[in-house]
Amino acid sequence: MKDISDKSRTWTAAALVLVCLAVIGCATAYTLRVLHLMRSDTDQYLLENAKNAVLTVTSRVEEDFYNLNLAAETCANLPDRENRLTHLRNLAGGQTLDKLALAEPDGTLYLTNGNSFSMAGNSIVEQALQGSEVLEISPEFSLENQTEYLVYAVPIVGHDNSILGALIWRDTQRFVTRWFPQNQSDRITIVESDGSIILSEQCGENVFDLLSRTVPERDCSLDQLRSDLSEGRQGIFYYHNTVEEAAITYFPLPFGNWFLLLRTPLESMNRSLSQAMLLGILLCFLLGAAFLLFLYFFLRAQQRHTQLLEQLAFSDPVTGGDNALRFSMRVEKILPEAPPASYVLVSADIQAFGLVNRIFGESAGDRVLSHLCRSFQDRLQPGELVARDTQDQFLLLLHADLPAALEARLEEMARHVNRFNEHTPTPYYLHLTIGLCLVNDPSHPLSDLLDQANLARKRARQHSTDKLSTCAWYRPEDQEQRLREQNICNQMERALENGDFKIYLQPKFSLAGRRVVGAEALVRWQDGEQAFFRPDSFIPYFERNGFITRLDRYMFEQSCIQLRQWLDAGLKPVPISVNFSRANLAVGTLAAYQAIQERYGVPPSLLEFELTETMMGENPTFFSEVVEAMHQMGFQCSIDDFGSGYSTLYMLQQVQVDTIKLDKSLFDGLRSQPECPRTAIVVEAVLQLARRLGLKTVAEGISTQEQLEFLKHYPCDMVQGYYFSHPLPAEEFCRRFLRPADAPPEVEAP
C-alpha cells in the first residue's frame, strides 16, 4: 500500500509538475505575446507623437513664412527704406527690437533699432535677394551672448517681379520653447542628419556623442540610428543610463536636412511592463488561482495602457476634448445610421483670434480655446459632438432644425461663450464666424461635407452683423464659385501669354459735333473654345488675387500698340483712356507705364488714366500726388464713375484731374418722372462746377434720346454710351471713326 501510495503521490506530483509546466509555458507565451503587443502600441504612440510634433513645427514655420511674406508684400508697396523700417518697427509693437531687419539689394542689413551693417556675400541674404525663401541656422546673425539664430528670410518682390530687397527675421527665442508648451520644450531637439544638434539647450554638441554614454535597449544601436538619419528614415532609439530609461523618436522635417528628436521618459510605461512581468512570474508559481489572478491584473493593466494611448491619440492637447480624428471616427459611425437631413455639420472659428495671441500671448489664447470647447460642450444635446480641428477652428455635429432656430441656438452658444464678460469692467467679446452644412446624404464623404461647411464659413466672414455670431449656410453656388475661380486662375496666365485678352474701344463723342474725340479701352476675354468671358466674371477675381496689375499694364500696352499703328498708317488718332486699378499703386509702377509709352513712341497726351471715384476718395492727398506724377510724365487723368459713391468738393479741390466722367446712375434718374427734376438739378450743378474748375466732362451710359436731349442744354463736353456705339474691336473702331491725318477738319454741327 505504501508503495502504491508512494507511486500515486509520484504520479500526482508528476502530473502537477506537468500541469504546472504547461501553465507556466502557456502563461509565459501569452505574457510575451502581450508584452510584444504593448511594445508595438508604445512604438506606434511614440511615432504618432513625434509626427504630431513635426506637423506643429511645419505649421508654425508655414505660419511664420506667411506672416513674413505678408510684411514683405506691405513693404513692397512702401516707397523707400525709411517707410519700410517704420512699418517693421510698428510690427514689433513700437519697440526698437532687432528681430526684424531689412536687406537692401547691395547686401546692407538695416535693423529696426537703427543699426546697419553689410551682409554682402552671406548665403541667407543672397538667396533671399535672388527670390527664394530661406530658413537656416546662422551664427553670423548673432548679437551679444547669443551663439546662433534661427533665421527666416523672404524676398520683397515688386509688382513687376523685381526684387526690391529682403525681409530678415531672426528668432531670438529658443525654437522649442516658442513652438511647444513648456512641458514639452525640454524634450524636443532639432539635429542635422550627421547628428549635430542645432536647436536645443545643448547646441554645438553631437547627438551620437551624447548617446554613446548610454546603453541601447531593444536591439537598438547607434549604427542603425546613424544610418536612419543619413538616409532620412524615421525610427525609435531606446536606451537607459544612470538617470533614466527613455526613448528618442526621430522624424525627418520637411525643410532643411533636419530631424526632430522627441525624448520620452519610459518610467511609467516600463513600470506597467515590469508589473505585468512580475504578475506573470507569480502566476507561474501560484499555478491555477495565481494564474487567474495574474490574468485579471494583467488584462486590467493592458486596458489602462490602451486607454492611455487612446487618450493621447484622440484627445486634443489644448482643450482636453476630442480632436479632429476622434470627431471624424464618431461622425462616420453616426451619419450612416441617421435619416437624411437629421444632422448639420458646423465649422466655427473666432474672428481675429490672432489678436488674442498677439496681445495676450499664446498661453492666454490656449485658455480661450479651452474655454470655447467647454462652452460648446455645455450646450450640446445627446448625440451631438464637438472637437477642435486646427488653430481656432471647431467642428460641431448638431441635430438639424429650422435654419432660424439653429442660428438662434448658435447665437445663444456664442452668448454663453461670452458670459465671462458679465462682471468684467473692460469686456473683450469673442465673435464667432460659423458655416453650416445640412447633411442631406449621410453617405456623402465627411471630407466633402467639411469642405462645404468651411466654404460657408469663409462666406460668412464677408457679412457684418451686430450679433456675437455670423452664420452662413452652404449653397451649391459656393462650390461653383470656387470652381469658377479655380478655372479662371488656371487659365489666366496662359490667356495673357496667348493674347486671349482683346482690346475693345468704346468711342467718346463730342456733344456739339457728334464726332469721335476719344475712346475708352475695355478688356474682353476671348477663349477659342468657350467664346467670351464676361468682364464681371473675371475682373473682381483678378482684383482679389493681384493679377489685375498685369492685365492693366497689358491693356495699356495694347492701347500704345493701337496708337502706334494709327500714327504709322497716317491716321489722325484720338486719345485712349485706360483703367488704373488700386493695386497698381506700388513703387515703380508709373515708371513701368512710362517705359511702355516711350518704347512705342506714342505721345503721352494721347493716353489717359482712369481712376475710380471711390479709390480717390479714400485719400485725396495721396492721390493728388499720384495725379501730379502722371501729369509730369505727360499723361492725362480722369475720375471715373463720378457721382456713384463718395463725391466731395474737397476731393475736386485736392486732386487736379483733367476730366470727370459722370456715372450712368446720374442719368438713369432722368427715366423716372418723380426723380427727373432732382436729377436734372444735380447733373446741372456738377456740370457747371466742372466748367468753372476748367475740367472736361464725359457723360457715361447714355442710352436714350431723352438723356441726350437733356444734356444738350448743359455744358457737357463728351458723351459715351450704347446710344452711340457699343464697345468695338480696335479694327472696326479704326474703320468707322478714324480719318487720315491730312483730311480737312470736320465742321461741328451747331
UniProtKB/TrEMBL annotation:
Annotated ranges, domain GGDEF: 341-473
Keywords, ordered alphabetically: Membrane, Transmembrane, Transmembrane helix
Keyword Transmembrane helix: yes
Spans through the membrane: 276-299
Keyword Membrane: yes
A Pfam family recorded for this sequence: EAL
Record-linked SUPFAM superfamilies: EAL domain-like, Nucleotide cyclase
Domain EAL: 485-741
Gene3D superfamilies, alphabetized: 3.30.70.270, EAL domain
Alphabetical list of InterPro entries matching this protein: Cyclic-di-GMP_PDE-like, EAL_dom, EAL_sf, GGDEF_dom, Nucleotide_cyclase, Rev_trsase/Diguanyl_cyclase
CDD domains (UniProt xref): EAL
UniProt xrefs under PANTHER family: CYCLIC DI-GMP PHOSPHODIESTERASE PDEF, SIGNALING PROTEIN YKOW
Protein name as catalogued: EAL domain-containing protein
The organism of origin for this protein: Pseudoflavonifractor gallinarum
